[in-house]
Specification:
By secondary structure, the chain is an alpha/beta fold. The protein has two domains: 124 residues, Diaminopimelate Epimerase, Chain A, domain 1 (Roll); 324 residues, Metal-dependent hydrolases (TIM Barrel, Alpha-Beta Barrel). It is built from 17 helices and 22 strands. Helix 11 links the parallel strand 17 and strand 18. It starts with a strand and ends in a 7-residue tail after the last strand. The structure holds zinc ion.
Length: 530
């Protein structure tokens, strides 16, 4: 007994689909006696979306604190912290995120602002860059941070003229001064966070994701979630390799990987990827550029790794059979990533490596053909591909219009033969595929600006974007023979949308509804948390 879908639009030359036991078993056939018949009534059936770059555990953790994500003024953030504090009098430390640091020039947020909301308990808010925190005075006091506290190596405490702390701390070494005093998160908290994120994904048509920032303690939470049946969708863990710590983590990653590989297949957890971060972001001048920033010509940004050390780490992880997933935003970082991938391919034995460069916002012309030539997958965030205030007001003045308008050369890369996959980078930006799906097609703001789209020659079709959100990520995950398309034998991971996004106006796509999501043939029905 299966389920028979007909009467709608399908992603590819199909008029009906049968699924049974979690798998697509027939295309364009007839229903069997006993099949449940689903009349799509003109709705659109496609492979479910897959998120190829995201941080769902961070998103779930943020959901457990004040909801400051997306707020555009300090007053709104403080009001939200106050609301949360008043509604949760028993929570001893108020920890949340992620606030938009760019709403304040230079980004120093003051403890006194948060003191207006809460003085009896420490408050710690993480910024969207995950490298900065804003705290109240109580948090500074509890952590013993005052004008005598030196900046820790590799971190800074923002200070007033007299040396007293302002309330903003930067980089993990400084953040740790406060976090080490906070109550440790429990495993149950993290399992609930993972389950919550999975439910948000399922209700929006997504059946696979990844966690692109696995630090100690996080993989353990995913394993526990899988054990307890709280992992609702396929999840691929990317172990974070950093210049200071990667050598001591090699054995630890290997242990976690074999633990995860030993889980039963239906656990939905996979781990075969190592994540590297080559640079920062264009918006705050930390992306690594080949030519200097125009607002400060003394700097071209910063590469996080030396070429030698990145090569050494990449060679070793590649030898151990890990896929490389490399964050590179500026053209110098993209070149460093491509160079390292080329060195790895030249030095290590050949295998099906599928290296990924994520973000790839600015690529030198001479490097564009190297994606296809080296078999590098470009993982893009489709929601970012328009002239939003970040690109227009923060990035353009820093790098000049010529480079700003060369961001996200999607059509050029597609024509060059490069493979593309999509990711949301949730919770940095929204996880909703329908909010992002049409942006690479119109490259316009929600108000349809600019009229022709931003760098309109880089626009692509919705059909291509659907493919990059499904097959593209399935390939990135080495899972194209199991998921990501409507083919007999593949998993019945499906989404039903209220209309065909390829035929409605691009600006109407974000208003389409997800009518149902099927994961392994099971229709998703929201359930209460653990
Ligand atoms: Zn990310």
């Amino acid at each position: 007994m299966g389920i028979y879908f007909s009467g709608g639009e399908f992603a590819s030359g199909i008029s009906s689909l049968r699924i049974a036991d979690g798998v697509i078993i027939e295309i364009n056939g007839e229903p069997d006696a006993g099949d449940e018949i689903v009349d799509l009534a003109g709705a659109f059936l496609a492979p479910a979306f897959m998120d190829g770059h995201a941080h769902p555990l961070f998103a779930g953790r943020e959901s457990q604190g004040p909801q400051v994500n997306g707020l555009q003024s300090v007053a709104e953030m403080v009001a939200e912290v106050k609301r949360f504090a008043d509604e949760n009098p028993g929570v001893p430390w108020i920890i949340g995120g992620a606030y938009e640091a760019a709403v304040i020039e230079r980004g120093d947020f003051l403890a006194s602002w948060l003191d207006e909301a809460v003085t009896d308990r420490p408050v710690i808010l993480q910024a969207v860059d995950h490298h900065t925190v804003w705290v109240n005075s109580r948090a500074l006091t509890v952590a013993g941070i005052n004008s005598d506290t030196p900046d820790p190596e590799g971190g800074t405490i923002a200070r007033n003229e007299d040396g007293s702390p302002r309330g903003t701390l930067r980089e993990p070494a400084a953040i740790e001064l406060i976090m080490r005093c906070a109550p440790t998160r429990t495993l149950d908290d993290d399992i609930a966070a993972i389950a919550w994120a999975g439910e948000r994904y399922l209700e929006s048509g997504v059946t696979a994701t990844c966690d692109a920032w696995i630090e100690p303690g996080m993989a353990e939470a995913y394993i526990a979630a899988a054990d307890r049946g709280a992992l609702h969708i396929d999840t691929h863990l990317f172990f974070l390799a950093q210049p200071q710590t990667w050598r001591e983590r090699v054995a630890y990653f290997a242990k976690l990987r074999s633990e995860i590989t030993a889980l039963p297949r239906e656990s939905r957890l996979r781990a075969r990827t190592v994540k590297f971060i080559c640079d920062g972001a264009l918006s705050n001048g930390t992306a690594a550029l080949l030519e200097p920033y125009v607002d400060d010509p003394t700097t071209s940004g910063l590469l996080m790794w030396s070429d030698a050390e990145l090569t050494e780490a990449a060679l070793l992880f590649d030898q151990q059979g890990y896929q490389l997933h490399i964050h590179a935003i500026g053209d110098a970082a993209v070149r460093q990533a491509l160079d390292v991938i080329e060195k790895v391919q030249g030095a290590n034995p050949m295998w099906d490596r599928r290296p990924v460069i994520v973000h790839a916002q600015l690529i030198s012309n001479q490097d564009l053909p190297r994606f296809a030539a080296l078999g590098v997958i470009a993982n893009f965030q489709p929601l970012w591909m328009y002239l939003d205030p970040m690109n227009k007001e923060l990035i353009a003045p820093r790098i000049g219009d010529e480079r700003n308008n060369r961001q996200y050369q999607l059509s050029t890369l597609v024509k060059s033969g490069a493979r593309i996959s999509y990711g949301s980078d949730w919770p940095i930006t929204s996880y909703l595929p329908l909010a992002a799906l049409a942006v690479p097609t119109h490259r316009q703001s929600p108000e349809a600006l600019p009229a022709d789209g931003w760098s309109p020659h880089e626009r692509i079709s919705i059909a291509e974007s659907l493919q990059f959100y499904t097959e593209g990520v399935a390939y990135q995950n080495f899972e194209e023979s199991r998921v990501g398309a409507l083919e007999v034998g593949l998993a019945a991971d499906l989404v039903i949308l209220s209309a065909d996004p390829r035929t409605v106006s691009p600006h109407a796509v974000s208003a389409l509804k997800v009518l149902a999501t099927y994961k392994d043939g099971q229709r998703y029905i929201p359930t209460p948390l653990l």
